[in-house]
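Sequence in, structure out. Go.
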Amino acid sequence: MKKIAHSFFILVTLITFTGSLMASNYLPSIIIEGETNTQLGTYSVSELEPETIKGETLRKFELTYENAKAPVLIYLYERPKSKEYIVRSNTMEVKYTSRKSGFGADFLTGKFMMYSPDANARFVSLEALEQQRKITTQEIGIDMALGLIASYYPALLKNSNLL
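Output:
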């Protein structure tokens, strides 16, 4: 009798846990991992629960570096003719855009801005941003974009200790 009651308890717990996972639709997973070939070491990108910002539901990713102090968040805003990747750390934000003409970086403007342009100017290397304006000459997929962001983003920081 005790064995049946114990088995029933485990079954109910398992069903409850599975149901709560399905209800939230949240199954975090590492999408990509790689090497930065910098002092930051390896990186990994995991998808988190989507987030609604200013009335838009955006896919959300967490970029972590082996030797960084804090993760970087990446929000994917899918537009009809482009995909904008809003990349936000504790100190600055930029966007990478993928469209038919290519993939590259720029300052973030518009409704998703969280930091002032002055704050970004203090932390973003303008020279590196200029070099990253056109990383590819064609549209790329999400996994490729996330990998390129993980590799190129640290160069945008005036001081990599800010990560």
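Check: The longest strand covers residues 42-53. Confidence is low (pLDDT under 50) at residues 1-24.
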